[in-house]
Amino acid sequence: MDLSRILTFASALVNTGYVPLRSRCNVVIETSSICNLSCRFCPAGQAHRVLDRQNRFIPDAWFHRIIELTRGLAEEYILHNFGEAALNPKICDYMAGLPDCRFALSSNLNFSARTARQLAAAPNLTVACALDVLSPDLYARYRRGGRLETALDNLRILLAGTCRVRVILFQNGEKNMAREVYGSDFPEDTQLQARARAFAREYGIPEQDILMNRMNSYWQGMEINPAPHPGRVCDALYFGLYFNSDGYQVPCCENVGRDLYLRHIEDIRDPADLLNGPPVRAFRRGLHWNKHRYSSCRACPGNPYTLNRLRRLLGQAPPLPSRPLSDC
Question: How far apart are CA 139 and CA 131, in angstroms?
């Protein structure tokens, strides 16, 4: 851990609101809030559309302004949030114009083979392929409108390219939530892990690049009328930068409403203002102290990164919701 990370960790621990100007973090840019599927719990899907912003591709001018402000801060650019980033016709142009930057995006892989070939040719890109389950019947219950066969065809194209490929598969989770979504015939975790290992061998994917993701109840925070969550602390804004497709800086990658729109990218003067301007410092402190003061945050468990990091050092933290198959 470098000095800037240590200083950021200390700042979050005592909740100063400040982040060191030399800090580096992931920068999330929602390049598309448009999606071609209607997945359960997702606010961007055709069936819900409850995002508190337009369904759009981010305009070029706003994307490039975000890059201009964050080039010295970005460890990696994550080009998705809600919506399917690969639908944005400019996505490969954005990456090609920044060959010295690292990019990542998550995708449902339900797009044309031409798009898959374009993504496959990006050497500075990691694609997290959200396959979820390896049964066509179960897949269709969650990825409404999607086809597992199409996703697997595009996965093969990506694996033959120069991009890095990771695959996301579901396990069960809190309150048997996966069975609530997929039905009572959803397999036990041991069966899912065995199938995942066979899949990894078949496709030549290292087990550390198969992510077993537990379907936890915080996903229900994406619904329109969610129940409050007991978690009160969120440090997300200390450890990342986030921008939605309308060009607003927001404090995290969840479906936040306008009560958590910090500022528009056109109103941010420079990197120092972006990191430590008065609105950002106030939001950091408020979210760490009690995120429930913001209506958008009440259903979310928050991201108590600092406390969880300390607990893990003491061997007391809960298990992570996602871990590589190699660790299962």
Answer: 8
Asked whether the beta carbons of 51 and 255 are under 8 A apart, the reply is yes
Q: How many C-beta neighbours within 10 Å does residue 326 have? A: 13
DSSP track, 30-65: --B---S---TT-TTSTTT---SS-S-BPPHHHHHH
Pairing assessment for the beta strands 240-243 and 210-214 based on DSSP bridges: unpaired
pTM of the model: 0.91
In this structure, are residues 241 and 27 in contact, taking their beta carbons and an 8 Å threshold? yes
CA gyration radius, the chain: 19
Coil/strand/helix, residue 244: coil
- Give the whole-angstrom CA distance, residue 271 versus residue 56: 26
Sign of the Cα pseudo-torsion (70, 294, 81, 76, in order) = positive
DSSP per residue, 202-232: HHT--GGGEEEEE--GGGGGGSSSPPP-S--
Per-residue pLDDT tens for 52-109? 777 899 999 999 999 999 999 999 999 998 889 999 999 999 999 898 899 999 999 9
Q: What residue ranges in 133-288 does DSSP mark as E strands? A: 164-171, 210-214, 240-243, 248-250, 263-264
Which run of H or of E encompasses 101?
Answer: none
Task: Report the alpha-carbon distance of residue 83 to residue 87 in Å, rounded.
Answer: 9
Alpha-carbon gap, residue 237 to 306, rounded angstroms: 12
Residue 182: how many other CB atoms lie within 10 Å: 23
Side-by-side strand order, sheet with 210-214:
263-264, 248-250, 240-243, 25-29, 74-78, 103-107, 125-132, 164-171, 210-214, 322-324
The Cα 150–Cα 87 span in angstroms is: 15
In tens, the pLDDT along 148-182 reads 999 999 999 999 999 999 999 988 876 667 777 78
Residues 6 or more apart whose Cβ sits within 8 Å of residue 47: 38, 144
